[in-house]
Amino acid sequence: MWQKTEKDDLVYYTLPRWEERGARLVMTTRRGGVSEPPFDTLNLGLHVGDDAAAVVVNRERLLAAVGGDGERFVSAKQVHGREIRYVTAADGGRGFDDYGGAFDDTDGLYTDEKDVWLATFYADCLPLAVFHPEKKLLGLAHAGWKGTYRDIAGALIDAMSVDSAELWCAVGAGIGPCCYEVDEDFYRRFRERYDGADDWFRRAESGRPHFDNAAANVALLTRHGVRRENIDVLSACTCCREDLFFSYRRDQGRTGRHSLLGALI
């Protein structure tokens, strides 16, 4: 179960059960940083128009609180695709203080080495994490609707080449079905691609479909063999919770990024 932590003005969520088995996972919020509006305050994205020096301070502050290090930090330029990269300590520092140094065109990262801090970024899209507690493998993936449609969760599991029944998975905070109104074409595309996709939508009073990205990814994970009892979901809508999260939809594109970070320890 996700657990909320408040430390040195920072607010973030962790999974103590994972930590007991050797993986530290951190779902950040927007609180505890130095960035000015509209990126206030703990913006961790270098690519959104914020002052880069402020972002680096935010990253340093967060990593100090959770036991990380910028020299072991690895990030990617996310493009809503299916590219997954294996990461080692040799990749440490990629994208930490220079967006150009991050891996190109990548939406998933995984490692089997300790103290390599994988980092992915969000402002409504859904954070995913996959952990094999016996083999000590950890992966993160960025699942916007396009990533979900393309089954980024399955791509990450396939890349890690493990028995999915032995995996632990986590779903972080993303935009909820309360706020995620979509059009009929969006609804039709998912129904045509996936059996049972009706269960991932609800109808508002207006009659328009609303998408439940978390439900979709939980369903896809279980279809790949992950046990439902091994999936932890952080039930918080990034669009509703302006006090805690950035939201691309709510803020009309001009906003910061929170992050899902993880490392084997």
Explain briefly what this protein structure is.
This protein is α+β, with helices and mostly antiparallel strands and 265 residues long.
Which key features would you list for this structure?
265 residues; alpha+beta; CNF1/YfiH-like putative cysteine hydrolases; six-stranded mixed beta sheet; 25% strand
- Under CATH, the homologous superfamily reads CNF1/YfiH-like putative cysteine hydrolases
CATH hierarchy: architecture: 4-Layer Sandwich
Strand content: 15-25%
C-alpha end-to-end distance: 19 Å
The main pleated sheet reads as: 6 strands, mixed
Spatial order of strands in the largest sheet: 1-2-3-14-7-4
Describe this structure in words.
The structure is a single chain. The chain has one domain: CNF1/YfiH-like putative cysteine hydrolases (4-Layer Sandwich). The protein is 21% helix and 25% strand. It has helices spanning 16-20, 52-66, 145-149, 152-160, 184-193, 213-223, and strands spanning 3-7, 10-14, 23-28, 73-74, 84-86, 108-111, 117-122, 126-132, 137-143, 168-171, 201-203, 209-211, 231-233, 258-264. The two termini are 19 Å apart. The protein contains six helices and 14 strands. By secondary structure, the protein is an alpha+beta fold. Strand 11 and strand 12 form a beta hairpin. The protein has a six-stranded mixed sheet with strand order 1-2-3-14-7-4. It has a six-stranded mixed sheet with strand order 5-6-9-8-10-13. 46% of the residues are buried.
